[in-house]
Design brief:
Layout (H helix, E strand, L loop, with lengths): L15 H16 L6 E5 L5 H8 L3 E6 L2 H13 L5 E4 L11 E6 L10 H13 L1 E12 L1 H6 L3 E6 L5 E8 L3 E11 L5 E11 L3 H10 L3 E6 L14 E7 L1
Parallel strand pairs: 1-2, 1-4, 2-3, 4-5
Antiparallel strand pairs: 5-11, 6-7, 7-8, 8-9, 10-11
Helix pairs in contact: 1-2
This protein binds S-adenosylmethionine.
Length: 244
């Protein structure tokens, strides 16, 4: 998974998500007076969130299931002059034998696990890896999003001449998207990549209950501005924060 993606992920600007998210999330952490010294970013991809945190003085580490994404993350860290430990692990079941102040999992990476038992197992692993009082923050595409926004075709041409086509189809609580990228080479030819990803979602109330059953506290379901919303059913992407 994501072995092809790694070749064009940053080039098509998908690292921007984490780069734009981090300052807003950091402002939220400042607002609640939480000052993490250590961070584990689960499904860290090409390392954007880890690099932002690291530049802000946090000791950041990442894990991901894709070797190729991790290679890019390592190269990006080097390019940015930061050191980040990276682990090749499946987020549904991992043990790094250490604990962190903050654990994150962003850009709907969690939706890639199609079995709810795996979400449960991941939450257990996260808890094992958090210091007491530590925070777990993840975002997810909601059922509303998969039902309403995953039946389309988007074609985008980038300034450098690259093309990106995404074709998505929704089956209700599950959806598939095929990404096709044509990356422009110097000799006027294109290099083509294609990968299909499946995402699944579950009711936010079920997720909240599972987290409560695992003894996470102070669970907040928020929007992208890290503001708690009255009607969580309106969210297409939810940001969930839970405290150990
Ligand atoms: C949409 S990308 C998000 C990457 C990064 N968090 C970001 O914001 O750019 C999803 C990432 O989840 C990773 N992933 C998917 N399933 C995984 C699993 N079971 N365990 C660990 N990583 C996984 C993929 O390899 C990919 O890097």
């Amino acid at each position: 998974m994501y072995e092809q993606f790694a070749q064009f992920y940053d080039r098509l600007g998908w690292d921007t998500y984490a780069k734009e998210l981090w300052p807003d999330f950091k402002s939220y952490l400042d607002k609640i007076g939480f000052k993490p010294q250590t961070l584990l970013d689960i499904a860290c991809g090409t390392g954007a969130l880890c690099i932002c945190a690291s530049k802000g003085g946090i000791i950041a580490e990442g894990l991901d299931i894709s070797d190729e994404m991790l290679k890019k993350a390592g190269a990006n860290a080097k390019e940015n002059g930061v050191e980040i430990n990276l682990y090749h692990r499946d987020m549904s079941n991992f043990n790094l034998y250490k604990k962190y102040d903050l654990v994150t999992c962003t850009f709907d990476a969690i939706n890639h696990m199609i079995d709810f038992q795996k979400w449960l197992s991941m939450f257990k692993c996260v808890k094992e890896h958090l210091n007491d009082g530590g925070l777990f923050m993840f975002d997810m595409n909601t059922l509303k999003d998969l039902k309403e926004n995953w039946n389309n075709i988007h074609i985008k041409k980038y300034p450098a001449g690259d093309y990106h086509i995404s074709k998505s189809i929704s089956f209700g609580d599950m959806a598939c998207v095929t990404f096709t990228a044509f990356v422009k080479k110097d000799d006027l030819l294109f290099e083509g990549y294609e990968e299909t990803v499946r995402e699944v979602s579950f009711p936010l109330d079920d997720i909240k209950n599972v987290l409560l059953n695992l003894d996470f506290k102070d669970i907040k379901i928020m929007d992208r501005r890290f503001i708690e919303v009255d009607n969580i059913d309106m969210l297409t992407r939810a940001f969930i924060i839970a405290t150990k």
